[in-house]
Amino acid sequence: MARVPCDLRFLLIPAAFMFIYIQMRLFQTQSQYADRLSSALESENHCTSQLRSLIDQVSTKQSRILALEDLKNRQDQQLVQLKDLVHTFESKGIAKLTEGGQVPLAAVVIMACSRADYLERTVNSVLKYQSPIASKYPLFISQDGSNQAVKSKSLTYTQLTYMQHLDFEPVITERPGELIAYYKIARHYKWALDQLFYKHKFSRVIILEDDMEIAPDFFDYFEAAARLMDRDETIMAASSWNDNGQKQFVHDPYALYRSDFFPGLGWMLKRSTWDELSPKWPKAYPYIRLSISMAMENHKGRQFVRPEVCRTYNFGEHGSSLGQFFSQYLEPIKLNDVKVDWNAMDLGYLTEGNYTKYFSGLVRQARPIQGSDLVLKAQNINGDVRIRYEDQAEFERIAGEFGIFEEWKDGVPRTAYKGIVVFRIQTTRRVFLIGPDSVMQLGIRKS
Prior knowledge:
GO molecular function, one term: manganese ion binding
Subcellular location: Golgi apparatus membrane
GO cellular component, one term: Golgi apparatus
CATH topology of the largest domain: Spore Coat Polysaccharide Biosynthesis Protein SpsA, Chain A
Distance between the termini: 153 Å
EC number: 2.4.1.101
Helix content: 40-55%
InterPro entries: Glyco_trans_13, Glycosyltransferase_13, Nucleotide-diphossugar_trans
CATH architecture of the largest domain: Alpha-Beta Complex
């Protein structure tokens, strides 16, 4: 029995080694967990730091947002005050311009933007003939934007009312490459015409641009045109412009024509027509779209009246159209210098029921020519001539030979009436360029 303790001592040695091994493993495991815990704590501290940084950034941005909202509110208040001030100026100006109780025949608005020198020349030209009859034709300047030179120049005139169109909405073009300026022009026109027709209740408006001079009989012409438009609802607008009004292509200051192409550049519109146009006013290119969308798609037999000799002269070499056509077509325009007594003129031939007969009679009397050397042939014939064209390409070729506008807009040659373009050659003689559909519409022989 005395050997048992000795055997136990041998067993204690491996047990001690086992215990030591287990302790070492436990220590190693605890060290690994401690390292992981330290790494986790470090990651947590980093995340906490990043979170605090993000919170600081959000707080900073919120402060900026609040500051911007405060700035916007102040600007909105300033805009309201500015509109109230403009309204006050308009009210005082209109009261002064219409004093005496006479109902105006038409408001005259000069559309302006950023050309103060051009505007001054235009206003001086208009006032020269408008001042004696100011109560019949109240004068306005409508400025698009905030060009200070234009605004300051406008406010120096006591004879007119100043309006300002402030448009902060961004422009999104419908097609790549389109000029933003044309979209802004369209918005400005709609705003100004809405103001004059609906806010100020004028029955007619004459629209000018800030790069125009007017003829001595400008207002008498539009007074006669107003009577004609009241008499004939098929006349959408009256214009003072002829695209082929260059000195070499005009002669008769008394001659007027109907046209399917909208001439623009000094024109008069009735409120009843604007009631139709305003809801569908185009986003851009108001002149082109007006002539096509209204005069063609929904034209109901309606056309425009234009003179042979222009009653406006466009001197705007620099503008949104970038001087397009200026030297060739605009600079040589003849501005009428004859004082026509329009009150004594019978314009009944321009009404829908009479004009087709009148105009087709002129065309029938013209001598037909064809072939080559058309200009030479026309010059050597004593009297009016007519020339047929079969398509746009042929029209452009013939127009190029004579030097008139070759351009078409959506299937309509400039100045055309039922496909016929008329101009003078060597003063008195007319040249009629006749389209393929004109024969059927006017009953003209194919010779």
